[in-house]
Amino acid sequence: RQSIRRFGTTALRAAAAEGSPYTLRVSTAQGSVNGLTEAIGNTPLIRLKRLSEETGCNVLGKAEFQNPGGSVKDRAALFVVEDAEKKGLLRPGGTVVEGTAGNTGIGLAHVCRSKGYKLVIYMPNTQSQGKIDLLRLLGAEVYPVPAVAFDNPQNYNHQARRHAESLDNAVWTNQFDNVANRQAHVETTGPEIWAQTGGKIDAFTCATGTGGTLAGTTRYLKQASDGRVKSFLADPPGSVLHSFIQSGGKLAERSGGSITEGIGQGRVTDNLQPDIDLLDGSLNISDEKTIEMVYRCLDEEGLYLGASSALNVVAAKEVAEKMGKGSTVVTILCDGAYRYADRLFSKTWLESKNLRSAIPKHLEKYIVL
Ligand code: PMP
């Protein structure tokens, strides 16, 4: 009984007041949230200690891997579904249809289960069985279809649209060009970062898939700071956006690729279009730097991050160096490494991508698969 009392909230508060050696904070928040959808967002903003020390800046990462579906895309999933509800396109018992192979599908699956909608997912059949299995066990109906280009009517996005059109009370959420995606970040990610830094933020940077996170967060931070906060796109190899920005608006053909998943783009989406001019610049981050940062974040910060998060952290470090000592730079930790571990920490995979030598000697101990 004594030990139960010792771990009660009152005892923890008292211990905290006495200067307990534990850094675990006692939550003073009252009450509970109503269902999974209200558990999305309000993620911690983590100061990356070693990188902050190294740069003499505050390098901060928004812990989006803490969302119920494990990624930043839970926010967009919730907003596109609630936008369809508000517009009367989706009524009780309805069906959500989306073309996605990744985190958006997982976010939608959680949101749809929680709200009682059916979910249908179309994806290119080049995606792993693991992703298909996960979506199916989260309750989605999954159609892997031939991986053909966007201008082919059989492309998975068009199939998703036609499927929704063929049903009554169904919506194609269309994450790339549905601006409810960006609005999620205007209304939640941006304000959270502004509040968590108390407005003491000098720059923001992140990569784009749909562009929702970058555009929405940038739009809010620029508004809140009267344009003072700078914003930079972080782009992987194979994406056209970095060269689009550097060339002042020339769209090149997409060529090459990257180890990162969920980011990189061949066009300017409707989510990005109106806000791309708000950006102060862009950075291209190599796969070598990204994979090294996956390992560094694990070793130095205890953070188990996917490749897009690691790319964002490299970008935040480079932006911090550009901004100068004492500056505060925020980025997005999009998801964890859980779904990618068999690649990111595998010797054979690293060798197949010519990235084995990008891992410094003292971090080789993490190549365990
Ligand atoms: N990282 C990962 C792992 C993702 O799945 C996505 C979404 N495709 C992003 C980053 C990019 O987010 P957004 O779609 O908001 O640009």
From TrEMBL:
InterPro entries: Cys_Synth/Cystath_Beta-Synth, P-phosphate_BS, TrpB-like_PALP, TrpB-like_PALP_sf. Its cofactor is pyridoxal 5'-phosphate. It catalyses: O-succinyl-L-serine + hydrogen sulfide = L-cysteine + succinate; O-acetyl-L-serine + hydrogen sulfide = L-cysteine + acetate. Its EC number is 2.5.1.47. It is found in: Mitochondrion. GO terms for cellular component: mitochondrion. Residues 37-335 form the Tryptophan synthase beta chain-like PALP domain. Pathway: Amino-acid biosynthesis; L-cysteine biosynthesis; L-cysteine from L-serine: step 2/2. Its main location: mitochondrion. Pfam families: PALP. GO terms for biological process: cysteine biosynthetic process from serine. Keywords: Amino-acid biosynthesis, Cysteine biosynthesis, Mitochondrion, Pyridoxal phosphate, Transferase, Transit peptide. The keyword Amino-acid biosynthesis applies. Catalyzes the conversion of O-succinyl-L-serine into cysteine, the last step in the cysteine biosynthesis pathway. Can also use O-acetyl-L-serine. This is Cysteine synthase 1. It comes from Penicillium diatomitis. The lineage of its organism: Eukaryota, Fungi, Dikarya, Ascomycota, Pezizomycotina.
